[in-house]
Amino acid sequence: MKIAKKIVNMKPSPTIGISSLAQEMKRKGVDVISFAAGQPDFNTPENVKEAGIQAIRDNHTKYTPASGIPELKEAVCRKFKKDNNLEYSPDQVIVSAGAKQSIYLATQVLLEEGDEAIIIAPYWVSYPDQVELTGAKPVIIDTTIEDDFKISAAEIEKYITDKTQVLILNSPSNPTGSIFSESELEEITELCVRNNIFVISDEIYDRLTYDNENATSIASINDQIKNLTLTVNGASKTFAMTGWRVGYAAGPKEVVGGMTKLQSQLDTHCVSISQHATIEALEHGEEAAKKMVEAFDERRKYVVKRLNNIEGVKTNIPKGAFYIFPQVSTHYGKKFNGTIINDSVSFCKFMLEEMKIALVPGSAFGDDKCLRLSYAASMQNIEEGLNRFENGLKKLKD
Questions:
Q1: Do 108 and 134 touch, CB atoms closer than 8 A?
Q2: Cα 31 to the chain's mean position, in Å?
Q3: pLDDT digits (tens, 9 = 90+) for 140-166
Q4: Which of 4, 288, 290, 359 is the most exposed place for a label (fewest CB within 10 A)?
Q5: Contact yes or no for 120/169 (Cβ under 8 A)
Q6: 256 and 336 within one domain
Q7: What are phi and psi of 64, to 5 degrees?
Q8: What does the alpha-carbon distance between residue 70 and residue 82 come to, in Å, rounded to a whole number?
């Protein structure tokens, strides 16, 4: 049996893999604290769950249009106008089975063999693989913790070639929590417009921001960049609906049309019940989302303070999402029971096996000096988990 080379070469999602491993250990009775989950630890709001149940009672269980039901697409347009200062019409919107699928559809429509897509590291783990599945080449630009894991338009320009078709932008960022300012986005806008580079703007964490920060949509800068941007979002993070699998995107009609055509041949459409529940989330989920942000902010401040007081750990201050990306590479080269900790994978393996805490290696995000810690966990688990983390570092010997 022959398996396609592109599938053999593709890496499974490391974040999902580590979360699954931690869950399996828990099922076996191991006291594991997981900082690996990329999802809120809150339940879906009651009114949203009830909307899903009512959708079943109302027999909204048939096929829908491939791009989504009109009522949800209209709600998405209202959300973009209210939150992001963006005017879209329903025929510019597609609803998919998660923001991940929206991005996959976009890369398939916009890229082909021989093209290049610029990705800023640290990046969300799926970007490079999704680009490679098109036959295009992911061009990775490294950043530093000193620059808050961001990069200037002038630096991006150095990586542009005549093959560059797409820039994938993620703000607020997974895994760093960094947010590009409006002025930084204005410079990137000028660069992309001048070079006719299309932007896939992943804004799934746009409502999860702190310290009075706002996550500006790059498509709102001017009409020229709006015509070169697909704005991607979804219900998963803001409304604790990861398992409902609802993402949505808006952009030029020809791009959205291509995505819709492809989606119709893949999974036909997003789950009908989930679509109806998402209307309720977008229209009446504000209060529940606000409470989640308040809780995340409290945890964020605690985690930053704890990590900054641990010798050999360096971190930026995340302004959005619910992750922190501390640098731990000063501990590489140390040993535990004769085993050398020489990279982020061996570091996280040590922490899982010996300290029973699940973390995601930074190498999965394109920065091996760091690791990702999610504070989408109870304060009790965060406190105990960081105690284990600190004690684990004390066990490592030069």
A1: yes
A2: 27
A3: 999 999 999 999 999 999 999 999 999
A4: 4
A5: yes
A6: no
A7: -120, 170
A8: 18
Burial class (CB in 10 A: 0-12, 13-18, 19+), 233: buried
49 in a structural domain? no
Whether residue 19 is predicted with pLDDT greater than 70 in this model: the reply is no
Confidence at 376, pLDDT banded by 50, 70, 90: very high
7 Cβ neighbours under 8 A, 6+ residues apart: none
Domain end, chosen from 229, 260, 285, is at 285
User: Same domain for 167 and 261?
Assistant: yes
Q: Which of 285, 305, 332 is the last residue of a domain?
A: 285
Global model pTM greater than 0.85: yes
Question: CB neighbours (10 Å) of residue 294?
Answer: 10
Q: Which two tokens stand for residue 295?
A: 């809780």
* Nearby residues of 37 by Cβ (< 8 Å), 6 or more positions away: 19, 374, 376, 377
Give the residue from 76, 62, 88 showing the smallest Cα distance to 281: 76
- Strands 339-340, 335-336: pairing is antiparallel
CATH number of domain containing 332: 3.90.1150.10
Neighbours of 211 (CB within 10 A): 12
Distance of CA 103 to the CA centre of its chain: 11
Domain of 11 in residue numbering reads as 5-43+287-395
**Domain identity same for 86 and 163:** yes
Task: State the total domains in the chain.
Answer: 2
- Reading phi first (left if > 0) and then psi (alpha if -120 to 50, else beta), residue 146 is in alpha
Q: What is the CATH number of the domain that holds 108?
A: 3.40.640.10
**Is 51 part of a structural domain of the chain?**
no
pLDDT in tens, 294-329: 999 999 999 999 999 999 999 999 999 999 999 999
Mean pLDDT of 369-387: 95
Supply 75's token pair: 């709600």
Q: Band the pLDDT of 172: cuts 50, 70, 90.
A: very high
